[in-house]
Amino acid sequence: MKKFKLTPVALVLIAVIVVAAGAYALFFSAPDGAKADTAAAAPKPALTVTAAQPEQTRLPLKLGANGNIVAWQEAIIGSESSGLRLTQVLVNVGDTVKAGQVLARFSGDSVLADVAQARASLVEAQATAADAAANAARARTLQDSGALSTQQINQYNTSEQTARARVAAAQAVLDAQQVRGNNTQVLAPDSGVISARNATVGGVVGSGTELFRLIRGGRLEWRAEVTSDEVIRIKPGATARVTAASGAQVQGTVRMVAPTVDPLTRNALVYVDLARNPGVKAGMFAQGEFELGASPALTLPQQALVLRDGFTYAMRIEAGNKVRQMKLETGRRLGDAVEITKGAQAGERYVASGAAFLADGDTVQVVTAAAAGAGPAQAAPDAGAAPAATK
Predict the structure, then answer these.
(1) 226 and 211 housed in the same domain
(2) Segments of the chain with pLDDT less than 70
(3) Most exposed residue of 46, 84, 236, 351, measured as fewest CB within 10 angstroms of its CB?
(4) Residues 84 and 201 placed together within one structural domain of the fold
């Protein structure tokens, strides 16, 4: 019997047919779970996230500064009498006083005696002046008769004028003594708060000695230091929020901007009137911000930002729901919104929260915020997001 010998080409064809038949049988005979595992070529999402887009909004323009809180104006109240003894001191540091209120009293016994003496001298001068005036009047009636010479008549007239001058001098002395008597009471020149007291009962002080210091009107101001290139941005009437060292916060209004700049520090002073607040005291150091209006800004929520190695990043969602780590530069903040000055554009999508758990190139499943709040069982993919693989 003659043997049938297969050629190499025939052997190859038979092998291909056998392999194809086996694969076909294996595929159609495999269970549904095995088919799904074979089809699951897409990578598994690393995290289910929601997306946020940069938004255009208006953020306030603020300028920070430091400075001291001082009295708006401080009046020095001194003694106008010399050599008198203090008998009463009626106010103390921190007291609120009104204009004209009595702050202290000096002993007035010696002053009263001087006033009485000056009044007696005035009465004497007035009597002498009246006698001189009568003599001069009689002399003038005899001027045409020749009974008195012209020289004698002139002497009577001179005596009259001299007596009148002495009356005026005595009156001036009496007025001066009465003023001195009024100065035995130290009066407040303006309403305000007593900030210092040097007056002591029983002390004998000289004229001009400082007794009290008074913060006029109780007004305080914040003298903020700003650089020479920033001072031109601040105008009188601008609003400022000041935080004192005590933690108290108070509103202020710019009263004046200094017309000169310190040549040593290159800083300028801005004078800010402060509203009254018991937690704000003169001499305190304070920090504050000037409110200079608002300007448009591109913002992202704070939760979308990640701080790594001293830089700010966000995870941008790209095609196929893959994330890319983007380095951003931030600016102003208002509540949860953070200004993005560089690195992001409007219309892009970023991971709204959980970006810290992702790495560059990870795949995520994007769902809507409502679905994310409903829980994993009810989470639905966001529009445009790739569906997650199922097993």
Answers:
(1) no
(2) 1-16, 18-42, 144, 369-391
(3) 236
(4) yes
